[in-house]
Design brief:
Chain lengths: 73, 349, 248
């Protein structure tokens, strides 16, 4: 299984929750922070991202960037 | 080019082609059906396109899209069809897209009749679509003038990035006269690349053509910029005078009515009546300054139109209280006769 | 340890702009797919978009290409004028259910029938979003809206209109497909359809139409996740997904 992580461009996130629902390994949640528009941005709160990009696929605000992590062999 | 006997509608169509217009979007309506018919044969033959739109609503919006690429495009219609284009004309003016529209006027209001009238003066110069915009309106009187003004219309549209309307009537559309139609190359027209869509690879910035500005300050600025453009357009005013040097009685008429009035004036002059005529060629901008000047020497001004009094109001505003202003009009497809105009003028002596 | 970015904001998405769309709105997802397709096909400089009237009226603020505004429903007529005068450009209309299936019905049917070589993305969310939730031609029977407060009654308003089916009765169009953006696997399929539609245009195959079943959390009175479940459970049975016409 691939390993990955996400970056949330917090100012664009509108807390819609579509990415939280879409994540197959449930590593995302709505955070307690508040962004400049008054929304609570999403965060990856634990390890286990599999770089499947389903969160970015659902995001209506293109607020998620996804990274694949490869261990050097 | 030789003089050719042509029907008015076809002459207007060929004039547009010779001015470089290769795209026509229109819908049939009497009395201008020869124009789409002519264009449907002529344009594909020169690598252009004729699109028969599903309605005049669609046609004017095709004109908006085609004009947005900076290309010379045109549509034509008649009174009720022009009403359908009102929305489109407001958007075209608001987005500052060049366009040429020909109205071959027929009787109104509503479906009216298929015979000629001049009942769309208000619609062309003051009304039609919503908001603070103006059309540049040209009113030919002969077929040769219709040819020349059609070709000029494309240049004016591109110069001012505004819709230009040719206000003709069913007489002009259907009559035949000898006309000379030469190739017309536009000169001194600003480059369209900065704003015309589809040129992003030739520009640094993209172009967005819009009339929507939700921010009130931006919308006010946009309206003020449009107003400044219409103020600059005033220098395009055109008119013709006939026997006005010593005129004590002034007739004001446009289009076909002015041609009829010329005969009446010639007859009255034979009787010793010092009557002359001012014939606006641009209905917007309106020659109010010249009418004001002529009315200072006039004992009476008579406005003659094929409607119930439309240009009359602009003449009244220009004349103010310098002279009494009277009106003679026929409508429903009936034109004032030479005799009727003479008799009306004699009543005012 | 090596880190590779495998998803980033599309190039064609305007930088540093916050969209005005409601949280979870399918417009955002579809705009993003549109931008991804524009990037992948490398057509940003030759694309001309036409903005509708509706929630997406200001989509030119979000998608970085040349744009023209259209009056309500008239986008297919503008697209006709644009594409006829610049056949070498890529032209698309992006319209909602009021713009396309109500006021613009004549324009879409006739442009499709003439086979004008542009692409339409049709956002069907069974309601009028921008104006506050009125009934649309696509509102479902029994669905409540502000102008059918007791639910759409076929006796009063007829049945909802299926645009893919209607347009596929025409001989001319090259490609018609209905997709949805309700869940990731459908979003991936929707992107394929949009890309195919643009590719058909580039290859000169004819008119292409992609209907996207979307959502309207605000006017449906639902949370975003819940609203997309409604799209799948209630809209898809009436508006089946699939290809309705394909040139090939």
């Amino acid at each position: 299984m691939a390993k990955g992580r996400i970056d949330v461009l917090e100012s664009f996130c509108k807390s819609c929750g579509l990415c939280v629902e879409a994540c197959p390994v449930k590593v995302l949640r709505i955070s307690d922070k508040i962004n400049s528009k008054g929304y609570r941005p999403v965060e990856q709160y634990k390890e286990g991202c599999i770089a499947c990009r389903m969160c970015a696929t659902m995001c209506p605000d293109a607020a998620i960037q996804v990274y694949k992590i490869e261990e050097n062999s | 080019m030789a003089r050719v006997l042509m029907k008015g509608t076809e002459a207007i169509a060929e004039a547009a082609v010779q001015a470089g217009c290769k795209y026509f979007f229109g819908y049939p309506i009497t009395p201008q059906n020869e124009i789409p018919e002519y264009m449907s044969a002529r344009l594909p033959a020169i690598g252009g396109a004729y699109v028969q739109a599903e309605s005049e609503v669609a046609a004017i919006n095709m004109v908006m899209g085609g004009g947005a690429t900076g290309t010379k495009i045109m549509t034509t219609s008649s009174s009720p069809g022009i009403s359908l284009m009102s929305e489109g004309l407001s958007y075209i003016a608001g987005c500052e897209i060049p366009a040429v529209v020909v109205n071959v006027m027929r009787g109104g209001p509503g479906l009216g009749g298929i015979l000629p009238a001049q009942g769309d003066y208000f619609q062309a110069t003051k009304g039609g679509g919503n908001g603070d915009y103006r059309l540049l309106v040209l009113a030919p009187s002969t077929l040769q003038e219709a040819v020349d003004l059609t070709q000029l219309a494309f240049d004016l549209a591109l110069t001012y990035r505004n819709p230009v309307m040719i206000l003709a009537d069913g007489f002009m559309g259907q009559m035949m006269e000898a006309v000379e139609i030469s190739e017309h190359k536009s000169e001194g027209i600003p480059d369209v690349t900065p704003w015309a869509l589809g040129n992003k690879d030739k520009r640094e910035k993209r172009s967005v053509l819009r009339s929507l500005y939700l921010d009130p300050e931006k919308l006010e600025k946009h309206n003020m910029d449009l107003k400044a453009k219409y103020d600059a357009m005033q220098k395009e005013v055109r008119f013709e005078e006939y026997c006005t040097e010593d005129a004590e009685y002034l007739i004001a008429a446009f289009g076909t009515t002015a041609r009829i009035a010329r005969s009446a004036i010639a007859n009255l002059r034979d009787e010793g009546v010092k009557v002359g005529m001012i014939r606006p060629v641009t209905l917007y901008p309106f020659p109010k300054e010249r009418i004001r000047q002529l009315s200072e020497k006039a004992r009476h001004v008579l406005v003659v139109e094929m409607n119930t009094g439309q240009m009359l109001e602009d003449v009244q505003a220009a004349v103010c209280d310098r002279a009494p202003v009277s009106f003679y009009g026929r409508c429903g497809g009936i034109s004032p006769s030479v005799k009727e105009i003479e008799e009306k003028l004699r009543e005012l002596l | 340890m090596k880190e590779t970015r495998i998803y980033e904001r599309p190039k064609a998405w305007m930088k540093d702009v916050h969209t005005h769309y409601c949280p979870g709105c399918g417009h955002g997802i579809t705009h993003r797919l549109l931008c991804e397709v524009i990037d992948e096909l490398e057509i940003q400089d030759k694309t001309i978009g036409i903005a509708p009237v509706g929630c997406a009226a200001m989509m030119y603020d979000y998608v970085d290409t040349d744009y023209c505004e259209a009056a309500h429903g008239r986008a297919p007529a503008l697209a006709t004028g644009l594409k006829r005068t610049r056949p070498d450009r890529v032209v698309f209309t992006y319209q909602g259910d009021g713009d396309l299936a109500s006021i613009g019905m004549a324009e879409i049917v006739h442009a499709a029938n003439r086979g004008e070589k542009f692409t339409t993305i049709f956002i069907n969310n069974a309601i009028y979003g921008m104006t506050g939730g009125q009934m649309a031609p696509t509102t479902l029977i029994g669905q409540k809206a502000t102008t059918c407060p007791n639910g759409r009654d076929p006796e009063l308003a007829g049945y909802p209109m299926r645009m893919c089916e209607l347009l596929s009765t025409l001989e001319t169009p090259a490609y018609i497909e209905r997709v949805t953006v309700a869940e990731p696997k459908y979003v991936i399929a929707a992107k394929k359809a949009i890309k195919k539609a643009f590719q058909y245009q580039i290859e000169g195959k004819g008119y292409s139409f992609v209907e996207v079943l979307s959502n309207c959390p605000t006017n449906w009175g639902m949370q975003p996740v819940q609203s997309f479940k409604w799209t799948l459970e209630t809209m898809v049975p009436y508006y089946p997904l699939g290809v309705y016409k394909d040139f090939e």
